[in-house]
Amino acid sequence: MAAAVTELRLDRATRTLLVSFADGARFALPAEYLRVESPSAEVQGHAPGQKTLLPGKRQVAITGIEPVGNYAVRLIFDDGHDTGIYSWELLREMGEQQPARMEAYEEALAARGLSRDPG
């Protein structure tokens, strides 16, 4: 089980969610990354291999953070997406895997001739 989150702060200027854990781990998670890796069924699908590739999310912003019990948050994005529940465990995993996941995302976009930029 992941250590509890001790601080969760949104830096609106950089569109980054700053997450600190009780064991001292800290991560700066860009809104774009959180959006394209949302744990929602809309993004992940309902079965393995159904993940949706989302281009054009470089400028997406988080407009709201809602607590879900004492174990997660629901993030609200300015593109209308609001169904992903981000557990502390998932936020930790996303922080640790950010470089690899973003590289895979960028490679998948490039393979399809898509861009992180809107429009």
Q: In CATH's first tier, which class applies?
A: Alpha Beta
The major sheet is characterized as: 3 strands, antiparallel
**What is the third-level CATH name, the topology?**
NE0471 N-terminal domain-like
How are strands sequenced across the largest beta sheet?
1-2-3
Please work out how many helical segments DSSP would assign. Answer: 3
Structure overview:
The protein has three helices and six strands. By secondary structure, the protein is of the alpha+beta class. The chain has a single domain, classed as NE0471 N-terminal domain-like.
Give a brief outline of the structure.
Helices cover 29% and strands 29% of the residues.
Please outline the helices and strands.
Blueprint: E1 5-11, E2 16-21, E3 26-30, H1 31-36, H2 41-44, E4 62-68, E5 72-77, E6 85-87, H3 88-111
Antiparallel strand pairs: 1-2, 2-3, 4-5, 5-6
Features:
119 residues; alpha+beta; 3-stranded antiparallel sheet; 6 strands
